[in-house]
Amino acid sequence: MSTRLSDYDYELPRELIAQHPLPRREDSRMMVLHRDEQKIEHARFVDLRKFLRDGDLLVLNDSRVLSARHFSDDGKLEFLFLEKIAARRWKALVKPGRRFGRGAVASIQGVQAEGGQIFADGSHEIILAEDIDLLHGGAMPLPPYIKRPALTSTSLGTGSDRPSLKEDEARYQTLFAKYDGSLAAPTAGLHFTPEMLATLPHAFITLHVGTATFRPVKTEDITKHQMHPERFSISPGAAKAITQAGRVVAVGTTTMRALESVQSDFGRIQTSESETNIFIYPPFEFHVVDVLLTNFHLPKSTLLMLVSAFAGREFILGAYEEAVLERYRFFSYGDCMLIL
C-alpha cells in the first residue's frame, strides 16, 4: 500500500497512445489479470465470454458524451462547456486560459462571448451576448493525449479532415449511450457491439463523467486530493439485477465508482439518484464489484490508483510494464484489461 503519488508512475512510449480507434470496436486486445494466482494472460476482447461464469452480470454506464467542445471563430481559443449556470452564462474550461481573463472577448458561432469570473477549480464564467446551446453541436471532448487537430462543424477543413470528425462522433461514444451528460466517454464500453452485448447478461446504470475523471493529482500525498462530484443513478430494475448477480462485472471505472458509492443492505443494492465524489485508492475495501473490465490509464492518475486498489499496486504496475513490452494500445481508443 502507498499513498505517494510518485508510486503510481510508469514509463509509456508516446507511440503506444492510441490516436484513432481500430476499424472495428470488438478487435481490441485484452490483457487478463488473475488476482488470486497473480497471473497475466493475453487474449482478445471477443474472448470475454470465456472468462465469465454462469450468473455473472455485466454492468455498463449508459451516459452519453456531450459534443460540448467549441472553438473561438478565429481558432485561437478552445472551450469545453461544463454547465449552464444562468441565462447566457456558462461555466467552461478554456485553453489557453491566460488569454481569456475577466473582460476578454471572443466570438463563438458568431456570438460574442465575454470572460467573467474565474472559479476556484480553474474554470471560467462565459457571458454570451445571445443564449445558445453549447452542450451540443460542437466537437467531441477528446482527451489532450490524442494529438491531432480538433475539428468542429464550423472549423472543418476539406477532404481528409472530414472523416476524422465523423470518426470521433461515432467512435467516442458507446453504442448503448442513452442519457446526455458526460464530458468524457466511459471508455471500457467503447469495445462492445450490440451483437456481442446481446449474448451477455447485462444491466445499465448512469454516471455522468465530469472533470473529476481527468483532473491531475497535484499533491504527493494522494489522500489530500479532492474529487469533484459526479451525478449517477441506479434504477430499481438495475438494483435488483445487481443484487441477484453471482458476480458483478463492472464495465469501466465510472461504473465501479457508482456501484461502490451506493449503500448496500445485506447484499442488496439500493435504487439511487445521487452524486459521488468517491476517491478509490489502496487500501479501499470493495463491497459490490467482483470483476472489472477497464482500459489502460494514465500515469499518476486517480484511475490508476483505483485499479491498484482492486488488483494491488505492484501487480498492476507489473502488468502495465508487460503491456508496454507487448505493445498494447493505451488510453481511450486503446486496448482493455480484464481483472478477475
Give a verbal description of the structure:
Helix 5 (302-311) packs across helix 6. The protein has a 9-stranded mixed sheet with strand order 2-1-19-18-14-3-12-13-17. The chain contains 6 helices and 19 strands. The protein is α/β, with parallel strands linked by helices. It has 2 domains: 5-65 and 172-339, 3-Layer(aba) Sandwich (QueA-like); 69-134, Beta Barrel (Thrombin, subunit H). Strand 6 and strand 7 (89-95) form a beta hairpin. The longest helix is centred in the last third of the chain and has 13 residues, at 313-325.
List keywords for this structure.
single chain, 340 residues, alpha/beta, QueA-like, Thrombin, subunit H, nine-stranded mixed sheet, six-stranded antiparallel sheet, 6 helices, 19 strands, 28% strand, globular
Determine the fraction of residues in helical runs and give it as a percent range: 10-25%
- How many E strands? 19
Proportion of residues in extended strands: 25-35%
Strand line-up of the largest beta sheet:
2-1-19-18-14-3-12-13-17
- Based on CA inertia axes, which overall geometry fits? globular
The CATH superfamily of the largest domain appears as: QueA-like
Give the assembly state of these chains. single chain
Number of helices: 6
Q: Uncertain spans, ≥5 residues at pLDDT below 50?
A: 150-163
For this structure, the CATH topology of the largest domain is: QueA-like
Structural class of the helix and strand makeup?
Answer: alpha/beta
End-to-end gap: 20 Å
- CATH first level of the largest domain: Alpha Beta
SSE string? EEEEEEEEEEHEHEEHEHEEEEHHE
Largest sheet: 9 strands, mixed
